Amino acid sequence: MAKLSASILAADFSALGTACAQVLGAGCDMLHIDVMDGHFVPNISYGAPVLQSLHRALPRAYYDVHLMISDPARYLEDFARAGADSITFHPEAVADPAALLDAIEAVGCRAGMSIKPATPVEVLLPYLNRLSIALVMSVEPGFGGQKFMPQALEKIKTLRAARDAGGFATEIEVDGGIALASGTAAACVQAGATLLVAGSAVFAAPDPAAAVAGLRAL
Questions:
Q1: Which end of the chain has the smaller Cβ count within 10 Å, N or C?
Q2: What span, in angstroms and rounded, lies between the C-alpha atoms of 38 and 215?
Q3: Which CATH superfamily, name and number, covers 3-216?
């Protein structure tokens, strides 16, 4: 059974706490917090104060923070204090990924790394034994609602094979264009993904509980 991380980027921000409580109650395993700076990716989303407010309202939720920003080290403590359980960054944005993994662990969070569609999956392999999450972007990071890029499936297969061969506990996460009706969620799970990020597929569904149940049953 795949785990599910609900991307709050697709939620109704006028009732964010209620929307998040609804999908968690329906069976989502965690909340995915997409942080964008308008520099590393061409969009701006939100920062640590939004996470802090959510954590205050839903203190028992697991917060899966994805930093799509140019200087992730600068903000690790802010997100850790705000309630992050795991922090994922992009190796494309830093000179020394190993040092940033150390820094994330030092602030008390689990560490993850994510790659853009154009980045070879081999970038992640040397760090797989240290990662809580290896995140494959199946769209260009920066905007929700994009079409799934099928080349992500080969990256997922490579990561899953390396994880299993090494006996690691790394979650193989995929983000972008994940939906039940299109078959992309099933394809990712068949390729070896263990954690799916879903935004509009959950928050915009006519019946979010049914959508969550369908995705988690894969």
A1: N
A2: 31
A3: Aldolase class I (3.20.20.70)
Set 12, 34, 37, 64: catalytic member: 34
Active site residue 34: yes
| Whole-angstrom distance, CA of residue 3 vs CA of residue 122 | 24
Query: Of 208, 184, 205, 207, whose CA–CA distance to 196 is shortest?
Result: 184
How crowded is residue 91: how many other Cβ atoms within 10 Å of its Cβ?
19
> What is the DSSP secondary structure assignment for residue 56, as one 8-state letter?
H
Question: Sorting pLDDT into bands at 50, 70 and 90, what band is 194?
Answer: very high
- Domain map (residue ranges) of the chain: 3-216
Q: Is 175 a catalytic residue?
A: yes
The pairing of beta strand 63-68 with beta strand 86-89:
parallel
- Tokens representing 78 are 């802010």
Quick: pLDDT tens for 44-66: 999 999 999 999 999 999 999 99
pLDDT of 126: 97
* Cα→Cα distances 73→78, 79, 82, 128, Å: 10, 11, 15, 20
Q: Does residue 144 carry a pLDDT above 70?
A: no
Query: From the candidates 29, 71, 164, 175, which is the catalytic residue?
Result: 175
In 130-201, the DSSP E strands lie at: 133-137, 171-175, 195-198
Residue type, 73: A
